[in-house]
Amino acid sequence: MRLLRQEQEPAPWVLYLAGGCFWGVQGYFQRIPGVLDTEVGYANGNQAGTSYHELSRTDHAETVKVTFNSRVLSLEELLAHYFRIIDPTSINKQGNDRGRQYRTGIYFDRDFPEEGIGRIHRCLEALEMNLGQKSVIELEELKNWVKAEDAHQDYLEKNPGGYCHIDLSLAGKPLDEDFMDYHKPDKETLKKELSPEAYHITQEEGTDPPFSHPYDKLDEPGIYVDIVSGQALFSSRDKFDGGCGWPSFSKPILQESLAYKRDHTLAVERTEVRSERADSHLGHVFPDGPQSLGGLRYCIDGSALRFIPLSKMEEEGYGKWIPFVEE
Description:
It is a single chain. This protein has 327 residues and is an alpha+beta fold. It has helices at 22-29, 55-58, 75-85, 114-131, 155-158, 187-193, 196-204, 310-313; strands at residues 12-19, 35-43, 61-69, 93-94, 97-98, 104-108, 138-141, 146-147, 222-226, 232-235, 239-240, 248-249, 258-263, 270-275, 281-286, 297-300, 305-309. Strands 7-6-1-3-2-8 form a 6-stranded mixed β-sheet, covered by helices on one side. A 6-stranded antiparallel β-sheet has the order 11-12-16-15-14-13. β9 (222-226) and β10 (232-235) form a beta hairpin.
């Protein structure tokens, strides 16, 4: 079961992503949950108008306008997908395509939130730290945007066998596989390594008594991981005081981090939340969260989690997740 989030009121953000031939970039992002709309066009050339056959003269980049629901798909998750499908060190070349029109770039319009620009900078810094070198990705305010001709819109939907430099199957591959490996120990090892409370909750669908776990009131930047496998589950940035006695979050760190099951153990049906990789019971999700955060409340047992402070994330191998945590 996957959580249905269509009823949430979207908070649309728009970003313009250049990553080589725009047919493939659009085809990839059309497959990502939380993307509301895509449109191909030409960005950041030296004049207001252009066309597909004039790009070398006007210096526009083939670009995809991506409108996404920021309450479902975080800016960091969106950019992680973007970084996955480009070569960030290749100048004016992606796949077999060469030329300035195939350069990489992240462009934002004047209405893009200021704090979002800072978050993009932090994502680029983390990418470059991982690469050990500077990227050649442009980060600029959008200018001279031109919507592409109709023949180029949704090109791969119209031409399923058409040219694409991107492996579109990557859209169905868990994004966190690009970050780190996760492993679930066997049952006997879990019994030795976990506390009785953690074992009972994660393996036997137990629950912490309300207001009993220190994570309920913890207010410190960092990441919350599955105590069984170490899989990254929640960011402190999405934590809020739900007043229910259990740690509360507005969304997971990645959409794919969690699995959902219908729970009929009480008179009212609930939605159980489990970790995707280790199938650990974590808690439940309810539709009574703050509307300003998307309207969901992930009510999670603290004993199912391990908190890693921001200051120790790099040391413990979670450095790639730092942009998902930093304010």
